[in-house]
């Protein structure tokens, strides 16, 4: 009986001490999640590999500088910079392939969407990223 009373007393004490509401959002205002109204045009690693070195085809690596230094797709342009618009080709119909680390990385998808928003039509997204590329044994370059 003492053990039961002790357990109840501890439980009630904990309820009193920790009786603050818990919010998943930290107690701030709730906001809607972003809606991506631009559908990306995916590209497989196999198809992307056939486009390396072709005229009017650009690979954009949206990874961190550390990942870039470990190796990138041959001819890729490091895209994770503030003045990224200067890196884009003049031809708005050029094929541009964006990639980052892996399917969990969203940086390349965001960069691709921003590029579509400013009028580029040949934008593709390779979701497997550089990790998928390396794991499949495809060639890479280092800076």
Automatic annotation (TrEMBL):
InterPro entries recorded: Rhodanese-like_dom, Rhodanese-like_dom_sf
Domain Rhodanese positions: 53-142
Keyword list, A-Z: Signal
Signal peptide: 1-24
Name of protein: Rhodanese-like domain-containing protein
